[in-house]
Amino acid sequence: MLSMVVAPWGRDPVVLRNADVPHDAASMMKVAVLAALCRSGVDLDAQIPVVNEFRSVAGGSYGNSPAWDSDPLPWERVGGCASVRWLAGRMVTHSSNLATNLCLAQVGHEAVARVWRRAGATAGGSPRGIEDYAGRDAGVHNRVSARDLVRLLESLEPEVLALLEHNAHRVDIAAGLPPGTPLAGKNGWFPGMRHSAAVIRPADAAPYVLAVCYTGRLANGHAADDPAARLLARVSAGVWRHRHALTGRGA
User: Fold this and answer.
1) What is the tens place of the pLDDT at every residue in 177-236?
2) In terms of Cα–Cα distance, which of 66, 60, 105 is closest to 82?
3) CA separation (Å) from 16 to 6, 109, 213?
4) Can you tell me the distance from the alpha carbon of 135 to that of 131, in angstroms, rounded to the nearest whole number?
5) What's the pLDDT score for residue 248?
6) Across residues 63-92, what is the average pLDDT?
7) CB 17 within 8 A of CB 159
8) Among residues 4, 5, 125, 170, which one has the fewest Cβ atoms lying within 10 Å of its Cβ?
9) pLDDT tens digit string along 58-72?
10) What is the mean pLDDT of residues 71-79?
11) How far apart are CA 219 and CA 184, in angstroms?
């Protein structure tokens, strides 16, 4: 299943393909956690304990696995402390699962749900933490659609969106753009799925939002060497070629 939405910034979408089909959110929910954290009033410079035990929505506790985490640095601080700001950064720049659950614990699930509601999302949001398998087995799923991702990015404050400019994983949407093209976005991957959404700011055309969600056998779950990432890059390149037509304006 391939879902796609293309929208000029601040305007109605001009391309819709399976736009409202729900997909497992994977790491895309980290954007909503970031927004909730930045809106919460939490002291981002506060030092908090770096632990690997979190409360499951199904009761009991769970932890993250280093083997499924794309960022080793937060694991080096387990048993010590780190600032909320640093953890939030690792959550969106290197897609740290451990940092995500630590940030989520600071704001709670309801604050994240409010982010999705404010954006107008309809697919279900992110009611459980990363790797809360007991919650998943109890029927609590993180879901997202391509349209939800566009709505989410458009709902972000400029300072929150700016944090997404530093995403280090640039093998899908970013890979389909000319080198150096400014963009702010997030991607997510897991065996069987690859998603990416970004605000793209061409120098010679109006900015636009592209969100692509893919669920299928092409996605091998690898951060970089993923056939599904190459598929998303081709989609991104195709949209880029038509960037001047998105708003009906020439170059």
Assistant:
1) 999 999 999 999 999 999 999 999 999 999 999 999 999 999 998 888 999 999 999 999
2) 105
3) 7, 30, 12
4) 9
5) 60
6) 96
7) no
8) 170
9) 999 999 999 999 999
10) 97
11) 23
pLDDT of residue 247: 80
The residues, any chain, with a CB within 8 Å of residue 210's CB and separated by 6 or more, are: 4, 5, 6, 173, 196, 197, 198, 200, 235, 236, 239
Amino acid at site 235: V
Question: Do residues 29 and 91 make contact, with C-beta atoms less than 8 angstroms apart?
Answer: no
User: What's the one-letter identity of residue 205?
Assistant: A
Task: Give which of 80, 160, 146, 82 is closest to 115, Cα–Cα.
Answer: 160
